[in-house]
Amino acid sequence: MITGPGTSDIDLDQGQVATPKNSRGWLWQGKIWPAFWTVASLLSLSVNILLIVILVLVGKQLFPLKQLLTQQLLGGLYYNFVQMDQAQIKTEVLVTDRIHVSDSIAVTFDLPLSQDTRVVLTRDTPINRILSSVCKKSFRPITGSSADCRIPGRS
Q1: What is the pLDDT of residue 61?
Q2: Strands 125-135 and 16-18
Q3: Which phi and psi (to 5°) does residue 121 adopt?
Q4: pLDDT level of residue 142 (50, 70, 90 thresholds)
Q5: How far, in Å, CA of 10 to CA of 3, rounded?
Q6: Distance separating alpha carbons of residues 25 and 29, to the nearest angstrom
Q7: 102 vs 9, 147, 152, 155, CA distance in Å?
Q8: H or E stretch including 133?
Q9: What are phi and psi of 20, to 5 degrees?
Q10: How sure is the predictor about 71, in pLDDT bands with cuts at 50, 70 and 90?
Q11: What is the pLDDT of residue 144?
Q12: CA end-to-end span of the chain, whole Å?
C-alpha cells in the first residue's frame, strides 16, 4: 500500500483505490447549508434552462397565433355580426282563438268655457240637413223643415 499527503491509498496487491478519510463529495461536505445551496442552485439552473427553452418554442409560434387570432377568430366574429345585422326574420303567427269583447264604457267629457271663442274657417264648410223653424206673421213657428247651408271660409 502506498500512502502520502494528498494522495489516495492504493492497495497494490488488489489494484483498488481507497478514498482517503478526509476527502468529501462535491454535494455533501458534512454541512447542511452548503449542500442545500448546491441542490437549490442546480434545481434553479435546470428550471431556468427549461423555461428559456419553452419561451423560445412559444416565441416561434407567436406570429402564427397572432395571425390565427386576427384573421380567423376576430374576422369570423365580425363577419357573423355583419350577417346577423343583415338578417330578417319573417314569420306568420296564426291565431285561431276568438277574443270576445263586450264592454260599454261611459265617457263623460264636460269642458266648461268661460271665455269667448273665435273660430276661423280656412275653407267652405257644408252643413247638411239643418232643422230650422220659420216664424210667420202669425207668430206661429213652422218647424220640421230642413235645409242645406254652406258657411264660407276665409282664404
Answers
A1: 85
A2: unpaired
A3: -90, 135
A4: low
A5: 7
A6: 6
A7: 123, 39, 43, 46
A8: strand 125-135
A9: -70, 155
A10: confident
A11: 59
A12: 145
Is 111 part of a structural domain of the chain? Answer: no
Q: Which tens digits make up the pLDDT trace of 78-110?
A: 888 899 999 988 898 888 888 888 888 888 888
- CA–CA distance, 83 with 78 (Å, rounded to integer): 9
Which structural domain range is residue 60 located in? Answer: 26-85
Residue 153 near residue 124 (C-beta atoms within 8 A): yes
Instruction: Decide if 118 is inside a domain.
Output: no
Write down the pLDDT at residue 48: 97
Its pTM surpasses 0.70: no
Q: How many domains does the chain have?
A: 1
Half-sphere exposure of 76 (CA within 13 A, CB side): 5
Question: Is residue 62 included in any domain, yes or no?
Answer: yes
- Give the cell for residue 119: 273660430
Mean pLDDT, the chain, integer: 76
Inside any domain, residue 39: yes
For residue 153, what is its C-alpha cell? 271660409
